[in-house]
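agent> Task received from the user: take the single chain below, predict its 3D structure, and emit C-alpha cells. No templates, no multimer pairing.
agent> Plan: (1) validate residues, (2) run structure prediction, (3) serialize to C-alpha cells, (4) report one or two observations.
agent> Step 1 OK, no nonstandard residues flagged.
tool_call: predict_structure(input=
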Amino acid sequence: MIPIVHFTQPESTRLLPDEVESTLPDDPLSKGRHVHFQALQQGYVSGVACAVTVDQSISAFPWVELSIIEAGTLQVEGDGYALTASAGEVLLVPRGATLRWKHDGELRRIFVAFTAAGSLGEMPARAVKIDPHAELQPCSPPSAEVLLTPEPIAHSHTQFDSGDCLRIGIWSCTPYARRQVQPGYSELMYFYEGGVSFDTPSGQRYEVKAGEAILIPAGATNAWRNAVAVKKLFCILG
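)
tool_result: status=success, residues=238
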C-alpha cells in the first residue's frame, strides 16, 4: 500500500515512514536532510531537514525544491533580491537559481524536491516566497461524481508552475465531503486554516489541522471531509 505521509504537530507525535537513502545527486542542501518518501517513477523525494548555522553559496540549483519552514529563519539572497522565511512560511527554489542560503542557529523544514518532470519548463531566476494572503479567484469545485455533500465554493491562485506538470499555490474551500478516490497525481498540502479528515480503504484516518502538512502520493486512495472552511498550500505533481 502506498503510504500517506502526515507531518503532525508537535513534531514529537510524528510517525513518518522509515528513512530511506537519498537519491539526490550532488545535493547542495544535504546537511541534516532526512528522506522519508521517494517516488522514483514521478521523480521526487520528501522528508524533513534540520541543520544548524549554514551560510553557503549555491550556483545553479539542480532541481525545484519547496520548503515549509517549521523553526528558525531562512535567508535567501540572489542577484538583486533578498527573502526571509520563518516558521509557517513557504519558500521555493527553482532549478538553475544562483543564490546564498543562510541561517543562524537551527533551521527545521519539511521539503519536497523534484528531480525529474517537476523541474522541467521555464524557470524564474529568483526564489519564490509563497504568499498565503494573495487574492484568490473562483475555481472549479471537486467533481459532482465524487461529492457526498452539496457542491462547495472554491477559490485558488497558482504562484508557480513548471512545464504543465508541477503547480504550486493557495486554495480555499467551504465544507464538503467526497468519497474515496485514487488520485493520479501527487500532492503535498500545508494547511493555513481549518482542518481535513482523510480516510483510507484500510480504515486509517488522518486528521490534519492548521499548521500541519500531508503528502498524498499518486495512487494513495483516500476520502476527504472538512467540517469548516479550509485554506491550504497545494503542491501538485502530475
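agent> Step 4: summary for the user.
The two ends are 20 Å apart (CA to CA).
agent> Done.
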